[in-house]
Structures are given as structure tokens and as C-alpha cells.
Amino acid sequence: MPSAELRFGRGQAPDPAGAAPGGPLPAPRIAPARGHWRSAGRSVGGVVVAIAVWELVSVSGLVTNQAMAGVGETASAIGAHAGTLVTAAGGTLKAWAVGIAIAIAAGVVIGSLVGRSRVAEAFTEGLVRMMRPLPSLALIPVAILVAGLGLTMTAGLVAFTSFWPIFINTRYGVRQVDNLLMDTGRTLGLHGPRLLLKVVMPAAAPLIASGIQVAISLALVVTVSVELVGGTGGLGTLVLQAQQGNAVPMMYAGIIVGGFIGWGLNIGFASLVRRTLPWSNRLESA
Amino acid sequence: MSAAVPSSRTSRPARIRKIGYWGLSWLGLAAAAAAWQLASGMAGSTIFPGFGTTVSRAWQLIDGPELTRDLIPSILRTLAGFAISAVLGITLGLVTGYYRAAREWTSAVFDFLRSLPTPLLIPVALVIFGLGGKMVVAVIVTAAVWPVLINTANATSALEPTLVDTARILGLRGPAFMGRVVLPAVSPQIFAGLRVALSVSLAVMVVSEILGGGSGIGYFIANAQQSFAITDSYAGVIILCLLGWAFDTLFLFVERRLLAWQHGTVGGEPHV
Questions:
Q1: In this predicted structure, what is the pLDDT of residue B5?
Q2: pLDDT in tens, B34-67
Q3: CB contact (8 A) between residue B173 and residue A119
Q4: B264, B270 in Cβ contact below 8 A?
Q5: Is A139 near chain B, with CB under 8 Å?
Q6: A3/B99 touch (CB, cutoff 8 Å), yes or no
Q7: Most buried of A21, A257, B109, B207 (most Cβ within 10 A)?
Q8: Is this complex scored with an ipTM above 0.90?
Q9: pTM
Q10: What residues in A contact B128, CB-CB < 8 Å?
């Protein structure tokens, strides 16, 4: 077991139960840089193990090869169809971007206006209760009926779905602002829109950011789902068509590309938040 | 949010304010329904049936054969997927949260897998499990396990060292330690994750059923859309809305019951 071995390496008393928590005691003894390298090494090791397991499962025939492509086949499918994959990913990202942009603009503006008024907040409470658990993916067939297939429908549905987490978090975050901050701002002569912009928004920003973080993943799920159901192009359609055409490596290529897009968007936004909102030390959701 | 337990000691103005809040929130819903009715009246009701028509159709569906054919299977699939995700997520979350090595080894892989838009896995699940319930449950698990796992792991890794050390000194080890010390301590965050997982389960259930459920609400809605039974597909969405709301309300009720012992021990809330 690697953990026990490494704990010895750190010069700590051996723990027979092998379960010493990552408590505060051993932390100062190791240089942070070394810990960082070891942690990164283990993550990479984990990826290597995961890829090995994937290859083993595919070689062993545990899963029918109509549903499982090996690592090599998938990699060569990515290489051979790079152009198709990039086009599909571009289509998905375009619908995603239009939808999320509308959702962020609407969610932040409406959410901060509603959150500042006690009455408006109460008025929207019932709606929020209804919409928070709404399985918006159920709206796909209805949206196809109303708007037909196409970018407008996809982006519209993405915007509608991802509006809610942003709106809910903004409404909550704006209401949560510390009274001390508000009073200080007022004493210093800030009122109305300037108070909102200079005091309320920065204080609510971490919560708004975590709403957007949720919305980013949700929007990608909705985009891909619309593409799967409606066949409007993009990664969802690509994966479904690959499955129907029995092009298993291509199917996995699409899934892997989708995973990298989701991962990149998440990491990108998280680092943007760390850089622009240093006072939100961790993302928490309402 | 406003999850505080209503206590008999609430002062009178506070109670009036609460009732006012509650009344306004229903008024908001009524306004939304009225807006819907008005919009459908203006748009012409062929593709956009009114609120009244839709709700009465939804009631007919709940009262008719669709209940056992579509609604009950969907509920069972959602609950099965949710239950599997809960067990899996809590177990893996405790392990990866508690052992730093386990956390470091799995972090990159888990980060990738949880960012993957799950509906992309539906075609794979279709090949492995075929049409029907098993496929739906499998896809639900791939999506709903992550909020539980991440919340459990985050809470476990941030456990109070005093708590851990006290339990160790008192001789708790292994499963007893996990079950009697760690699990109760992190249960609020686990419940927060479970709540998200429940709504994720519902959403993923719908899209998997649309693509290959064989039965269920999602299948019903997609069928209604393809055969231009427009009121039916709206009614299906309304039923899902109510289902989501019912699940969420039930969940909060259970959570309050199970976590009742925590009032007054954490979060600075006074004893009720």
C-alpha cells in the first residue's frame, strides 16, 4: 500500500492502523514543493492506471466489442477524424456559448435586482422552488415543437436551463451581503446603483461565480442532449451516429473529446475565478 | 435557504412576515400560470396549449393507465439510480476524502469523468444494456454519483482534527470509526450532495428515456411530440415538474428528521 510506505518516508511514526489523517501535524515537515510534485505524480499515475484498466477491459472481452474500443483504436480514430471531431466540437461549443452568455447576463441582472427587494424575492420564491429541481431536459421535445430544430432552439433551451442556477445564486448572494459592509458603504456616501456596483456585487461575486460554475456544466449537458435527441449536429449527434453505424472507436473518440471540453471549461473557469476574485477562497453553492 | 424549523416561540410579527412571504410566493406562481395562459391565448393554442388545458390533461394522465405504464417505472428507475449513486458516492467519498494518497491518485481521473457530459454515454449504455430500465439506471449512476462523491470527499478531508484524535484515543478503529465518527460529522454535506444528485437523477432519467427507455415519462413525452399530441407532451413536463418538486420536498423533510440531532451543535443555531 503506497500510503503507508510514503508515510514512513516522511519520517513520521508508523501507524499500525495505516489511517493517520492528513492532519495538521506532519504538514510543516515536508517542503510544500515536494508535496506538490508528489501529488502531481500520483494524479498522473492515476491516469495511467485508468487507461490501463480501460485497455484491460477492452482486451478481456468483458464488455462486447460493439460497446468497447481499445485505447489504441480510439486514439487512432481521434487522429484520423480530427477534422470531423473539431467541426462537431465547434458546433457544440457555439450553441453552448450563445446559451450561457444569455443566461449569465439575464441571471446576474435579474437576480441582483430581485435579491435587493424583499417583496420581489418573496414573489419569486415559489417559482424558484419549482424550477430548481426541474428536469429541464424534459423540455427538449417541447422546445423542438415550439422552435423547431436549430441553433436558436438549442441556445434558447441552454439559456433557459442555465439561467436558474445563476439566478438562484445571485438572488441569494445579493441578499447575504454583510450589513456592516452595506452600512460602511452608505456612510461613505454610496447609494443606489453605485452601492450595488461597488459593494453588493463584489460581496456577492463568489456565490454568483459558483452559480455560473454549475451552469457551465449544466449547459454542456443540455447542449449535448439536444444534439442527441434532435440530431442537430455537434458531438451528441456524432456519438449517436457512430453508435448506429457501429463505428465504436469513433464513438469513444467523441466521448473523450466531450470529456476534454467539459474538463477544460471547468478548469478554465475555476482558474479565472481564482485570478479575478481572490477573496473567494473556495467555491460554495447556495 | 429558509430551512429554519418553524418554532412555536416565533414572535408574532415574525410569523406574520412568514405568512406574507408564503402568500407572495404562491402569488408569484399564480402570476406565472396566468402569464402562460395569456401567452397561449395570444399565440394560438395549436403548438402552445393553455395552462388550464395542460393541467387537466396532466391530471387525466396521473389518473389513467399511464400511471402504471410510464410514471411508476420512471419513479422506480430514478430511485434505483439515486440509491446506487448514494451508496457508491458516500463510500468512495469517505475513502478518497480520508486517505490523502487515495485522493491524489484519483483526483485527475475523477475530475475528467465528472466533467464529461453524461448524456454522451447513453449510446454506449444502449449497446451494453439494450432498451429499457437497466440502461436508464446505469446512465443515472454515471451522472448522480459525482455530487455525492465530491461533497463527501471534501467534507471528510476537512474534518476537525480534534474530533479524529479524540475518537482514536477512545480506541475507535476501522468501520466503527468511519460509521460512528466520520459519517455523522460529514452528514450535512453528504445531504447537500444527495439533494443535487436527486435532481440530477431525475434529469438524466428523462433524457435516457427519450433516447431509449422503452417506457417511462421521457418516452411518453418524446412519443407525444413525434405524434404531435402537443398537449400530452406539455402535460408530461408538468408531471415531471411536480415530481421534481415532490422529490425535493420529501428529501428536505427526511433530511430535517435525520439531521435533527444537529440543531444546536453546529452552525450557531439555537436549541429549538
A1: 47
A2: 888 888 777 766 777 888 888 888 888 888 787 7
A3: no
A4: yes
A5: yes
A6: yes
A7: B207
A8: no
A9: 0.82
A10: 63-64, 67
- Interface A–B counts its CB contacts (< 8 A) at 209
Task: Point out which residues pair with B266 in neighbouring strands.
Answer: B263
Residue A193 burial (C-beta neighbours within 10 Å; 0-12, 13-18, 19+): exposed
Helix pair angle (A82-116, A118-131), 10° resolution = 140
User: Would you call B3 an interface residue with chain A, using a CB distance cutoff of 8 Å?
Assistant: no
H helix and E strand count, chain B: 12, 0
Contacts of A63 in chain B (CB under 8 A): 128
The C-alpha cell that represents A164 in the structure block: 436558474
Q: Does A30 touch chain B (CB under 8 A)?
A: no
Strand-pairing partners, residue B263, are: B266
Closest residue in chain B to residue A255, using alpha carbons only? B120
Q: Give the distance from residue B25's alpha carbon to the nearest chain A alpha carbon, in angstroms.
A: 5
A13 touches chain B (CB under 8 A): no
Contact B25, B34 (CB under 8 A): no
Q: Which residue has the cell 468501520?
A: B175
Grid coordinates given for B207: 433524457
Q: Chain A contacts of B106, Cβ < 8 Å?
A: 46
And the C-alpha cell for B227?
405524434
Per-10-residue mean pLDDT, chain A, length 286:
34 37 42 74 89 87 78 88 90 93 94 85 80 76 82 89 90 85 87 84 88 91 91 88 88 92 93 84 46
Helix, strand or coil, per DSSP, at residue B10: coil
What 3-state DSSP class applies to B263? strand
Q: Which of B140, B139, B124 is nearest to A252 (CA)?
A: B124
- Cell numbers given for A162: 442555465
State the smallest CA–CA distance between residue A188 and chain B in angstroms.
Answer: 31
Dihedral sign from CA coordinates of A250, A252, A253, A258: positive
- Contact between chains at A221 and B118 (C-beta distance less than 8 A): yes
* Block residue for cell numbers 396549449: B49
Q: Could you give the CA distance from residue A26 to residue A228 in angstroms, rounded to a whole number?
A: 50
Q: Which of A224, A220, A226 is nearest to A269 (CA)?
A: A220
Question: How far does Cα A132 stand from its chain's mean position?
Answer: 17
Within an 8 Å CB–CB cutoff, is residue A255 touching chain B? yes
Q: Distance (Å, rounded) from C-alpha A159 to C-alpha A96?
A: 9
**Nearest CB to B124 within list A3, A146, A251:** A251
